[in-house]
Design brief:
It is found in: Membrane. It is a multi-pass membrane protein. This is Nucleolar GTP-binding protein 1. It is a single chain. By secondary structure, the protein is an all-alpha fold. It has one domain. It is elongated, with a radius of gyration of 20 Å. The two termini are 17 Å apart. It is 73% helix and 0% strand.
Length: 120
């Protein structure tokens, strides 16, 4: 499930070949480290309830939910801000999409491309 979400979110919300590669690699590395560390919080001495491990896993899941909500809020805020700026520029939607595609083909990152929109 996590790998599927990574494959969908990373390419659609990052622009620029180098940035996309680095973000994808960092996401994969974080996923691997999380799996290695996560298994270490469950100790044999805590059997059969594994209370410290359960608390640690629940805490991490809660933090993940909070971070995902903050991440989505940031993307929504960026999309609204970019929409306001695009509307103020007076360009049509079609012209904005064309300029966004052209900047994407020139390998402009999502932060520098004012016509880039994050997917939800």
């Amino acid at each position: 499930m996590v790998q599927h979400a990574e494959k969908k979110l990373v390419p659609s919300n990052v622009a620029g070949r180098t940035k996309k590669t680095l973000i994808s690699s960092a996401t994969f590395l974080g996923y691997c480290v999380g799996n290695m560390v996560g298994s270490q919080i469950f100790k044999t001495k805590d059997a059969p309830q594994y209370l410290p491990g359960t608390i640690g896993a629940a805490t991490c899941c809660g933090l993940e939910c909070i971070l995902i909500c903050l991440w989505r809020g940031y993307y929504m805020w960026q999309n609204r801000r970019r929409d306001r700026l695009a509307t103020a520029s007076g360009l049509s939607k079609e012209e904005q999409e064309r300029l966004g595609r052209e900047m994407g083909e020139r390998d402009v990152t999502d932060m520098k491309n004012p016509y880039f929109r994050y997917t939800m």
